[in-house]
Amino acid sequence: MARxxxxxxxxxxxxxxxxxxxxxxxxxxxxVVAPNAQWNWIPSNxxxxxxxxxxxxxxxxxxxxxxxxGIEFHQALATEIHPEGGDGHDHSYVVVRSTAKGAEGxxxxxxxxxxxxxxGPKLNFAATKGLGPDGYTLSVCTAPHAAATAGELKKAIAxxxxxxxxxxxxxxxxxxxxxxxxxxxxTFNLDHVLREAGVRDRAEVVYLTNEAQLGDFGVGxxxxxxxxxxxxxxxxxxxxxxxxxxxxxxxxxCTQIEPGVVxxxxxxxxxxxxxxxxxMLLPPFxxxxxxxxxxxxADISDQLFNPAGFLKVDANYAAGAxxxxxxxxxxxxxxxxxxxxxxxxxxxFAPPHQISQPRTSPNGTLIAPAPPRTGMPSGMIAKAxxxxxxxxxxxxxxxxxxxxxxxxxxxxxASAGMSFFKGSAAAMTMHPVVPDWRKYPATGRDLxxxxxxxxxxxxxxxxxxxxxxxxxxxxxxxxxxIPE
Amino acid sequence: xxxxxxQAAKQIQAAPLPTPGTLKHRRNVAYxxxxxxxxxxxxxxxxxxxx
Lengths: 484, 51
Ligand SMILES: Cc1cc2nc3c(=O)[nH]c(=O)nc-3n(C[C@H](O)[C@H](O)[C@H](O)COP(=O)(O)OP(=O)(O)OC[C@H]3O[C@@H](n4cnc5c(N)ncnc54)[C@H](O)[C@@H]3O)c2cc1C
Hints:
The complex is a heterodimer of chains A (about 475) and B (about 50). Chain A is of the alpha/beta class and about 475 residues long. Chain A has helices at about 10-25, 45-50, 60-70, 145-160, 180-195, 235-245, 300-305, 375-395, 455-475; strands at about 5, 30-35, 40, 60, 70-80, 90-100, 105-110, 115, 120-125, 165-170, 205-210, 225, 230, 245-250, 250-260, 260-265, 270-275, 280, 285, 290, 340-345, 360, 365, 410-415, 425-430, 450-455. Helix content of chain A is about 25%, strand content about 25%. The longest helix of chain A is centred in the first third of the chain and has 19 residues, at about 145-160. The relative contact order of chain A is 0.15. With about 50 residues, chain B is an all-alpha fold. Chain B has a domain at about 15-50. In chain B, about 75% of the residues lie in helices and about 0% in strands. Chain B has helices at about 5-15, 20-25, 30-50. Chain B is flat. At the A-B interface, helix 6, strand 14, strand 25, strand 26 and helix 9 of A face helix 1 and helix 3 of B. The site of flavin-adenine dinucleotide has 36 residues of chain A, from helix 1, strand 2, helix 2, strand 5 and helix 8.
């Protein structure tokens, strides 16, 4: 009998748990540890955040799904990994602290044969003073954050209706944020609801981003063909900003938020203040607060994790300057180089470096979009890791399964307004996610797999993905037919 | 456009502005239904190439 322990029940952890349970016989155990009782389809938080969808529609309780599937669920926060055992354990184990009602704070050790760290991002609002719901800005990163943001938006719309003029600032709250696609989506959904409410003329909408160019999205932008021409996501995105009358501030690192004012620095080193009435700014991400110890109890966290707390895997972390970066730097198997039964999936793995070119201001401030690890790559990595573990449990000496982001594509559908007949979305595909300039010297990506299109069809696609992924996550019949 | 970031404002102003015809196409249900099918095929292609 083998025991697989999965830390995290987001896109990566939940995908891993369902696939592992389906492929492993009942003799083997699949255990999930996650602090939240509910699963959240995060991409639709955007619609919750503009008041177009109630939070209940993006959440469902995990326990009944896991009970039905035969997956053991611990509602808890993992705090320590002991890959060599120790302290009375012959086996590797993790320490978890319960977050379940009535058992809060209770600690427990869970032994494992295989471990997947799928703890995703820690929302690091603390990186910028005053950022986030505990400070002076709003967020859509969790369903409760998004619901609170919708409440504030409703109040702002009432003020606009009363004749006030307001400034809305949407974007990234730090120079090293990722997920610019989500900020982009919120900007255009906001524009859409303000137009619907008939108050757009009294609202100034500003997109404040760490991207050096619009359309960078943390992947260095895209080149694709459209009507017989090669075009770029930069031009394409700029066109959308022009059409909707949205202003942009590029290459910005927020230094501090005060009530109603964002302080930021730009790549040229200039310092600015931007007063606002409503601000939704995403935080930068860190890894979860996990510690690792060897058999003797010595802290080995800095060996297992990178300084930002993401788990180091089979990547090349010594590539150095941007000029030296190569597709080969990116991990393939997501196995820890130190412990061959420890893996990472989704945002929890440490990327070797950014995808987009990093920049430093003359004041030495790093303004560099972190590499996005969106839903599709997170799910695909999780599945590849599970297939490797299943092979090993079955005793096969097969090579590890691979899911490098340099061979993997991604579909990103960025909503630009939710309505069945008047909605819109920018639907993008890219292949691969991380450009491979050796294989595709002209644009870094396969032009046949890279595309961009704006229209109502994109909105239908986004809605279809919402329905399909919730169906899959609930493990309804034939869920496995829906690809990651 | 404002002077919040003059360089960005200049770039946005220089970007192509969709014509009313293009905007209509983007909302035309029949045309978009065809695009929806095409989008599905594109996604299947990317998914197929990734697995
Ligand atoms: C607002 C927003 C919109 C987005 N829109 C899109 C989109 O349209 N398309 C797209 O592809 N991607 C989108 N993304 C990105 C997508 O949400 C992520 O790629 C995806 O969630 C990553 O999956 P994950 O499993 O790595 O992390 P998560 O889904 O965040 O899951 C992490 C899990 O780990 C748990 N956890 C955290 N700490 C611990 C711990 N110490 N112990 C145990 N468990 C722990 C968490 O509770 C959670 O269950 C969006 C992200 C945001 C924030």
